[in-house]
Amino acid sequence: MKVAVIGAGLAGSEAAWVLANTYNLDVVLFEMKSSTPTPAQSEPHHFAELVCSNSLKSKSRLNPAGILKMEMQALGSLLIRSAQQSEVPAGEALAVDRELFSGFITRTLRNHPKITVVEQQIRKISWLSDSDFAAIVIATGPLTASELAEDLRLMTGSNALYFYDAIAPIIDGDTIDHSIAFYANRKTRTARRDSELKLVQDMSGEPDNEESGHYLNLPLNKDEYIAFVEALKAGEKVPYHDFEEPRFFNGCQPIEVLAESGEKTLSFGPMKPMGLDDPRTGRRPYAAVQLRREKIGDGSFNMVGFQTRLKWPEQKRIFRMLPGLANAEFHRMGSMHRNTYLVSPRLVNRDDLALLCNSRVWLAGQISGVEGYVESAAMGLLVGHIIGHKLSRNINLPLPPPDTALGCLVAHLRDSDVKHYCPMNIHWGLFSEMSQEFLAEQAKVIPELAAAKPNKKLDKGLKRSLLANRAEALFSAWKESSLV
Ligand SMILES: Cc1cc2nc3c(=O)[nH]c(=O)nc-3n(C[C@H](O)[C@H](O)[C@H](O)COP(=O)(O)OP(=O)(O)OC[C@H]3O[C@@H](n4cnc5c(N)ncnc54)[C@H](O)[C@@H]3O)c2cc1C
After folding, report:
1. 141 lines ligand 1 (CB under 6 A)
2. Which pTM value belongs to this model?
């Protein structure tokens, strides 16, 4: 039996891999980028290209993105395998060398005997649904080619919606003033408590080097900070096109939009100085910019949280105001991009996430309304398992339960309010409160919980470790009972 996967991005690569490798199904993987790259792509022949940040978010089990990656690993994820082979140091985050990462995935898929790669743009789903494919996965991402987007709009009867993310600049590491910049990891209360409780599970098995720190930090005093915020506000921005409606994803607001929202917004957000004492003064600066390695070595650094729609000459002028960046050269400037997605809760079958209008067709990845590399890959992986069970085991795979990380994403796609539906990354807000029964069970083995005063709010670190425990238990039980 043959399955068509359209798009060899994060979601399509995972779906193709699991269908071919776990379920021994023949997969035809369609990808257009060698002839028609999207505006964000720069690598014509690499699958699963990371078009912006090289971070796959936290590795900690006390972070929802960490839990999601653990679930993916348990389901045989190719993304996780590749990330482990191409990891670059980034504190608690799983960051990768993007070329090694995509190169590994590309070679694995191209060399797989059950996968045929067809370098072609698909313009209509009927091209494939009229042929002998038993299932079709649409994983064409946030920059789905416009003809296919129009075909999907007609097919589903819903409007494709647009909103905007923005790309952060990358700095040439040799042009940073290292007499000002210093290495340190921003240690949050949760991270500190996490190490105290010894609950962090580093997926790579490597201990975090907390001594020196993986991030390069630029400290600002109050005057420097205020001047910088004023410059961001006044800087010239790229105007919107007529067809563009500026709707920003919450976690990806342009830096100038944050600056406009209040003088202190940045110093409490991407420029928060918590735990970043300046070795020159021994004191915490008023604010700090964090730079994360883009590749192994010190050659290039991403400005963390500095996605922007400022014009390029303005970016250079304003970012060079930052201490340590007076002579900075940029490998890549920040920019804006479009995002296309469908309103899944109105379109998908609750039992197996297939489209209601065509039960042989599935959406996977960002086009279905999840947000982010890991979330997109996770949904590609899950859709692969759903189709694999149907076609090669002849059974319907029960969907992962609520309060696992995957179950939270499934709930978002299935149960969200259609009026306010927009792409979502994994976060604690998607997990439900814990029941008294569960807490009572946990109190038997966690003395700190047993000692907690009744009706008092649980400490944040403890609460997160309990949520992680619940997710792990639910996921293991689901995997044990459902995956064949
Ligand atoms: C500019 C930009 C920056 C981003 N930055 C980040 C970030 O820093 N961190 C993060 O987590 N997420 C980021 N995202 C979101 C990120 O793109 C997604 O999270 C992730 O790539 C989505 O995976 P996907 O598989 O759904 O789509 P993609 O990875 O985009 O893959 C879709 C694939 O389908 C192909 N395709 C499209 N249409 C067709 C067609 N008609 N026929 C054949 N092939 C087709 C494309 O060429 C592409 O290879 C960014 C997105 C953009 C656009």
Report:
1. yes
2. 0.79
